[in-house]
Amino acid sequence: MNLTPGGNAPVPAQELRVRITSGGQVDASAFRLYADGKVQGDADMVFYGQPRNDDGTVSLVSEGQYSTFTVALNRLKPDVQKIAFTVTCDGGQTVSGLRNLSIDVEQGATGLVSGSVELSGR
């Protein structure tokens, strides 16, 4: 399935790998969101300074232009509605300077969802 910017996609409630690839170094983050569309606290955020959440259901490994999240959907708290992924640019870099940004969601060796965004001119 090809994902469009701002899009959502259903995925199986299993352990998944979410890879974010960019044309430059970014800080990728994941957020556990609840019915109100918000996090409940710091434990719901995963990023470079906190690469694992409180219960280990979301973890992050970043290497340059690649950020890989492991997400155990089958172990999430029942009241978690979704996981949101974001990127922010480092230092004086701009989004248009990244040139491209893509996301791939995999279960084992099977690709489930992918999407890319052309960033030139943004």
TrEMBL record:
Which PANTHER family does its entry note? CAMP-BINDING PROTEIN 1-RELATED, TELLURITE RESISTANCE PROTEIN
Identify this protein by name.
Tellurium resistance protein TerA
**Which residue numbers delimit the TerD domain?**
24-107
Q: Where is the signal peptide?
A: none
Source taxon at top rank: Bacteria
Pfam family, any one:
TerD
Which InterPro entries is this protein grouped with?
Stress/Tellurium_Resist, TerD
Lineage of the source organism? Bacteria, Pseudomonadati, Pseudomonadota, Gammaproteobacteria, Enterobacterales
